[in-house]
Write a structure and sequence with these properties.
The protein is mainly β. The chain is built from one helix and 14 strands; from the N terminus they run ββββββββββββαββ. The protein has two domains: about 1-150, no CATH class; about 155-210, no CATH class.
């Protein structure tokens, strides 16, 4: 980016390579970009290179080779409520913990980035999920998450909403077919997340449980059968 003041929102900038200087993530030259709720990770050649000015808010900068932010010193780097590997001395609300990514650079349920961001105009994440106040995390200043992904488990069943595809057909752990608004989609008394962890179908109340113990008291024998769907 050069000689411009763009606004980058909900961008996932990962696994890029810069061969001749600059950065594999963002190269800002003679401009004043704003970067909000972006995930910049595992780029070769650095994360963000700044020649002039930049404003970074609610962003993850993690795993980038060489450095996360490089400031040439000709302007100013303002950083708020971001997760930056190695930290950043001039900023507010900076955390330095592993963001605990899962599939597709999404946040895992124990990510320190959940409810750790600041309120801004980015009301939905990169997949269109609205900002959500996770009851399992204390809000730092708001219920905005840091990064491009907003962690959501609307029904509290241990499965993120994006995994629960509402098709009624279980494919795998990232396409469960269960409902994101019903913690027990098949009404069998077992939460959908527990069923997926146990490798049973959350859409079928008749699914055989994975571990069945059969005891023979007379001979004091005990067998455990492992069912693999």
């Amino acid at each position: 980016m050069g000689c411009a003041d763009p606004v980058l929102v909900n961008c996932v900038i990962v696994s890029n390579t810069a061969y001749e200087g600059g950065a594999g993530g963002i190269y800002s030259y003679l401009g004043s970009p704003s970067v909000r709720n972006c995930t910049i990770a595992y780029n070769s050649g650095g994360g963000v290179y700044v020649f002039d000015n930049i404003f970074i808010q609610n962003c993850i900068l993690w795993g980038d080779a060489d450095w996360e932010i490089y400031d040439e010193g000709y302007g100013g780097v303002a950083v708020e409520y971001s997760d930056i590997q190695g930290g950043w001395t001039n900023g507010t609300g900076i955390i330095t913990n592993d963001p605990l990514f899962t599939t597709g650079w999404r946040l895992g349920p124990q990510s320190p980035c959940i409810d750790a961001g600041a309120t801004n105009s980015v009301f939905a994440d990169w997949e269109g999920d609205l900002r959500w106040d996770d009851p399992g995390h204390t809000n730092t200043v708001s219920h905005w998450d840091i990064g491009a992904d907003e962690y959501r488990d609307s029904d509290g069943d241990g499965l993120e909403d994006w995994r629960e595809t509402s098709t009624g057909i279980y494919v795998n752990s990232t396409n469960t077919g269960s409902s994101p608004t019903d913690a027990d989609s098949d009404d069998d008394g077992i939460a959908d997340g527990t069923e997926v962890s146990n490798r049973t179908d959350p859409n079928n109340s008749d699914t055989t449980p994975p571990n069945v113990t059969i005891s023979f008291p007379t001979n004091n024998w005990q067998w455990t059968l492992i069912w693999i769907p």
